[in-house]
Structure formats: C-alpha cells, structure tokens
Amino acid sequence: MNITQPIGETLALIGNTPLVRLTGPSEAAGCDIWGKCEFANPGSSVKDRAALYMIRDAEARGELKPGGTVIEGTAGNTGIGIALVANALGYKTIIVMPDNQSKEKMDTLRALGAKLVLVPPTKYADPCHFQHVSRRMAEETEGAIWAGQFDNTANRKAHIEGTTEELWEQTGGKIDGFTCAAGTGGTIAGVGMGLKEKNANIRIALTDPHGAALYNYYAHGELKGEGSSVAEGIGQGRITANLEGAPIDTQFRISDEEGMIWVERLLREEGLCLGLSSGINVAGAIELGKQLVSEGRDNPQVATILCDTGFRYLSTLYNAEWLGAKGLPVFDWLAHEGDA
Predict the structure, then answer these.
(1) What is the mean pLDDT of residues 91-97?
(2) What region holds the Tryptophan synthase beta chain-like PALP domain (predicted)?
(3) Percent of the chain that is helix, strand, coil (3-state, to 5)
(4) Residue 8's pLDDT band (boundaries 50, 70, 90)?
(5) What is residue 15's three-state secondary structure?
(6) Is 43 exposed, middle or buried (0-12, 13-18, 19+ CB in 10 A)?
(7) Which one of 36, 47, 92, 105 is the catalytic residue?
(8) 295 — alpha (psi -120 to 50), left (phi > 0) or beta?
(9) Is 104's pLDDT higher than 80?
(10) Mean pLDDT across the stretch 300-314?
C-alpha cells in the first residue's frame, strides 16, 4: 500500500485479502471465476480501503488535524470503515445514512462510537439527499472534513495501488477479465485503470443492478435507470469523479433474483455468507467468463469482488418475512425454519 504516512499495526490489516476460486460459478461459466474476499477486512467490507486512503489523503493535505471529525454520507459500509480508521487515528466520526439500510449497519456504526444521523432516502437532486446533508454538516462543524467518497479520487487510488496489485500478484499476472458493480465507482474504475496499465487486453466489465443508470450509459450513452433493486451500496445515477475515465469495455445488468441465486448457492455449497452486491458481482463475472469463452479464449481467468459479509443483512436478505415482502426467493432452510 503506497501511503506516505506510517500505518499502525491495526490499519495494516486493511487489504491483502484472499482470492478464492468459486467452484459453482466457475462450472457455470466454463472457466475460472475468482472472488476477492473483501469481507476479510477489519470492517468486513471493501470500503475499508477507501476509508483509509481518504483519511490519509486529508491528513497529507493538512485538512484533517488531530482531534478532528470525519463526516460522510454512506449506505453504511464506508461509514463503518471510516469509524474504524478514525478510531485508530484519534478522530471522531459522524455518519449520515438513508434510513432504509439494514439495521445491522446502523447498530454496527453506533457500536463503533460513530454519531449516526438517519435521513429519508431520496434522489440525488434533492437537497435532503444523504450526501448533501453530510456535506453541509461538515461545512458547519468546526474541525471537520467531509470524506466525499463519490467524488474523492483517493477512493479509486486505493484500488489502483492496493486491490490491483494484489490481484496481479495473486493471479501471477494471468487475469483476463474483471467485473464488479459501481456504487461510488471507486472500485471498478480503480481496478480497471490499474489492470489496463498492466495489460490493455484485460476485459473490464460493469455489472449493474436494475434501477441503476450506468448500464445504459455505457451501452447507449444515456444515463437512464430501469427497474429497481434492494441491493445496498451499489447502483449509481451519475458519473462521479471516481468514474471519470473508467475503462469500461462491456456491461451487464443483473436482477436481484439472479444475484440471490448466487448468494444462496455460495452459502449452501461453498460456505460463504455474503451480501446481495456480492451475488450480483458473481453473476456478472459468470456472464463475463461466458463471453470470453465464446470468443475462444482458453480457460480465461475472471475476478470479481466479494464486497461484504452476509452477517450485515440478517434482518433482510436472511429473513424469510423480509424476502417474501420483497417478492424475492426464500432460502429453503429459512422457509422451513421451525418445522418439526
């Protein structure tokens, strides 16, 4: 990790996550599908990487001073990462989050000592959107900085310098494709830029949930969302600063139902308890693998991001009543829970 300031022992735990071959997805794609186990970070998600880089960048620029406060608007995981990093470095944390996110994320943020401000979910154009609320709070709070993960390119730098290098080393440079969904755009843009510098022939694919606008943007040049998704932390309706210049070669749109198939299978067959964004990413990786196989590539190697742990969604994705209310398939063992 290329950060100029020294990193304490605990912060050095961020990154260097395992890369695992996913058996079921590999069989479905006809080639090797690899998952980067970002749930192995201290905050149990890929967002720890961005949190560390954004805070260190603010320190390096002299904006964040001892005893200061980090304020951010987030669907939850970035806030959790920021709270952990801030705790380790002696800063306070205020997190603004839409109130429709999982209870587990809210409880985790409070347990970590962050001040949590909940706001109703709304469109980005609304001044009450969680990003705008958090930015105004930072402007009004003495000694505070706004992390601004969506347009703070220290976010994607974390993936250019960290995630990319790890993937390259772990695959021995034998990687043919990479895909993931976009929330801020930092991961897909950062890894895409980093891998393209190493080999311009690596296929970079966006995997978009329904309701997000980027699929249509990269396919047809128009920011237009269709449908909806219950996935938290992914889906974007604008080109953020992190997405500017992202080398997207192709794109896939994955439904919640298809993503949930892989959430269920990866838990039942491979012992990986993951969130829906991971299931959507894996479904996209399978599509990318099939695409590369159809072009005649010999056992292409495709990697994706396993974003976070399913333990963060016990009240939603792993709750039969919630799944039924959303019209999503209920895992067999949840449907029969309590049966004799």
Answers:
(1) 97
(2) 13-308
(3) 45, 15, 40
(4) low
(5) coil
(6) buried
(7) 47
(8) alpha
(9) yes
(10) 97
One-letter identity of residue 123:
K
Query: Which spans in 271-319 are helix H?
Result: 276-294
Q: Is the dihedral of CA 162, 163, 169, 173 positive or negative?
A: negative
* pLDDT for 336: 76
Bridge partners of residue 304, in order along the sequence:
35, 179
CA distances from 19 to 22, 39, 98, 132, 133 (A): 9, 11, 32, 36, 37
Residues 6 or more apart from 110 whose CB is under 8 A from it?
116
Residue 121's SS3 state is coil
CB atoms within 10 A of CB 102: 19
Q: How confident is the model at residue 1 (pLDDT cuts 50, 70, 90)?
A: very low
Per-residue pLDDT, averaged over 187-213, amounts to: 98
What is the β-pairing status of strands 203-209 and 177-180? parallel
Q: Which of 32, 33, 35, 31 is nearest to 19 (CA)?
A: 35
In the numeric block, which tokens belong to residue 135? 């930015």
Residue 159: DSSP 8-state? I
Which distant-in-sequence residues (6+ apart) come within 8 Å of 79 by Cβ? 72, 93, 95, 97, 105, 109, 114
Quick check: is 47 catalytic? yes
Predicted pLDDT at 9: 78
- CA atoms of 218 and 185, how far apart (whole Å): 13
